[in-house]
Amino acid sequence: MKSEDGVTLVELLGGLVIIGIIVVSIMSVFSNGIKSSERTTSRQEIQQEANLVVEKIRSAYLQNEKNELITEEFIVKKQGQKLEISEISETGSTINKVISEGYHYQLFMTQTDGTTGSVEELVLDRSITSPFHLKICPKSATGDCPSNQGFEIQTSFSKLN
């Protein structure tokens, strides 16, 4: 009988195929994990930005409690990749404050018939309950807001008397 100490070509190729399948499986799991992590991070950043926007608008909404010279209304408006608050100062001049930038913004207004439409600016009245609807998305090359990547805020601002 012959001694069979070596490895045949078929055994070598079989081992390489098995190792290749294992490596491809591991790389696929890592790739999916990285993509999922990037999506989650992006979503959290947008959510934090939305919370910051709401807090800045709430602060502006409650501002006239401290100063009676401040007008009842102010405007939240979209200016390209910026979201601004416009107020009329005590002297009568308009003051624009950037409250967020670097994202795609969509402001919505609910009509009297219940339909919602996109608007460039939204007037908020400090003397009554003011509904607020905003969608924030990451910047995109096309300029639109993919439905699965945005974060929507629907709330209203009011004061307790």
How does this structure look, described?
With 161 residues, the chain is an alpha+beta fold. It has one domain (34-157). Helix content is 33%, strand content 34%. It is built from 1 helix and 8 strands; from the N terminus they run H-E-E-E-E-E-E-E-E. The chain has one helix at residues 9-61; strands at residues 73-79, 82-88, 94-101, 103-110, 116-119, 121-125, 130-138, 151-157. The strands form 2 sheets. The protein has a 4-stranded antiparallel sheet, with helices on one face. A 4-stranded antiparallel sheet has the order 5-4-7-8. A hairpin with a 5-residue loop joins strand 2 and strand 3. The termini are far apart. The model has no long low-confidence stretch (mean pLDDT 84).
Describe this structure in a few short sentences.
The chain is an alpha+beta fold and 161 residues long. Helix content is 33%, strand content 34%.
The proportion of residues forming helix, as a percent range, comes to 25-40%
Overall pLDDT metric:
84
Largest sheet composition: 4 strands, antiparallel
Our measurement of the CA-to-CA distance between the termini, rounded to an integer number of angstroms, reads 102 Å
Give the SSE order as H and E letters. Answer: HEEEEEEEE
Q: Structural class, judged by helices and strands?
A: alpha+beta
- Tally of DSSP β-strands: 8
Shape: rod-shaped
Strands of the biggest beta sheet: in what spatial order? 3-2-1-6
Count up the domains: 1
Number of helices: 1
Quaternary state reads single chain
Spatial extent as radius of gyration: 28 Å
Strand content: 25-35%
- Stretches where pLDDT is under 50 for at least 5 consecutive residues are none
